[in-house]
Design goal:
The structure is a homodimer of 86-residue chains.
Chain A lengths: L1 E7 L2 H14 L1 E4 L2 E5 L2 H14 L5 E7 L5 E7 L2 H5 L3
Antiparallel strand pairs in A: 1-3, 1-4, 2-3
């Protein structure tokens, strides 16, 4: 399935959450990750994230079973593309 | 259709972009907006955003034609819900 994950966590945990998400998904911009992932890997990723997160943190997960059902368009500078060359 | 819009724009333009998106979609978290929107309104929204954005800014648009094809899950604090009571 295709997923988009956005997060808003305390400053101290941003690095940890970001590093964890990089293991499973592609970074797109700010606190947004996306990518294709299996149900099993997603469960593991979420369990690991929950162990990092505190009560005041939040994480949004958007799931699309059929990756072809979602279309992505980029306007302006594609920062995830830049990132590949940094 | 259901859309998710995330943006990464220069500090000076954050307020304008945010205000414009609020006219068309619901704010969820940080620089992420979501909601159901018609093709016509989306085109108008994008045209208005493009007139605000500069070359170094970026905006990601994820479109799902059938809103039932996308599932949303919230972990931790739902900040968009809090926002309703502020």
């Amino acid at each position: 399935m295709f997923v988009i994950i956005t997060y808003d966590v305390g400053e101290k945990r941003v690095g940890k959450v970001c590093k964890k998400l990089r293991e499973y998904l592609d970074w797109t911009q700010n606190s947004v990750f996306e990518g294709e992932i299996t149900k099993g890997k997603l469960s593991r990723c979420l369990a690991e994230l929950k162990s990092i997160m505190e009560v005041e943190d939040s994480l949004y997960l958007y799931k699309v079973e059929n990756p072809r059902a979602i279309k992505k368009e980029v306007y302006g500078t594609d920062k995830s593309f830049d990132q590949l060359f940094l």
